[in-house]
Amino acid sequence: MSGQHSPDDHRRFRVVVIGPNLFGADADFHVHAADCADLRRNQLYRDHTDEIDRPDDIASLRELVHTIYDPHDFDYRPENWADFATGIEVFPCLDLPDEH
């Protein structure tokens, strides 16, 4: 099947998703690279060690949105994922593509 790719053909990123309900945060969820030093330094994350210790493997912002806001649980069409991305802040430590 020349020209077709599976999700495994794309780079995956180890990410830490923190949220919701971050006190003093502008976004519902903060997303950092798993090796980002800010996860241990920033006082905002001090009560989120469980999330920090269990990173996820994600290939794109679309996959991240589908992981946080499952289309079946939140009753939306998967292709409308960008509507849910507004509550997610991806930090500069992570260069996550929109789609894969």
| Head-to-tail CA distance between termini | 18 Å
Number of strands: 4
From the alpha carbons, calculate the radius of gyration and give it in angstroms: 14 Å
What spatial order of strands do you see in the largest sheet?
3-1-2-4
Mean model confidence by pLDDT: 87
Series of secondary-structure elements, N-terminal to C-terminal = EEHHEHE
Provide the helix percentage.
10-25%
Shape: globular
Number of domains: 1
Number of helices: 3
Uncertain parts: 1-6
What fraction of residues sit in β-strands?
15-25%
What does this structure look like?
The protein has one domain (11-90). It has 3 helices and 4 strands. The chain has helices at residues 38-41, 49-52, 61-68; strands at 13-18, 29-33, 56-58, 88-90. It has a 4-stranded mixed sheet, covered by helices on one side. The longest helix has 8 residues, at 61-68. The protein is globular. Residues 1-6 have low confidence and may be disordered.
Helices, strands, pairings?
Layout: E1 13-18, E2 29-33, H1 38-41, H2 49-52, E3 56-58, H3 61-68, E4 88-90
Parallel strand pairs: 2-4
Antiparallel strand pairs: 1-2, 1-3
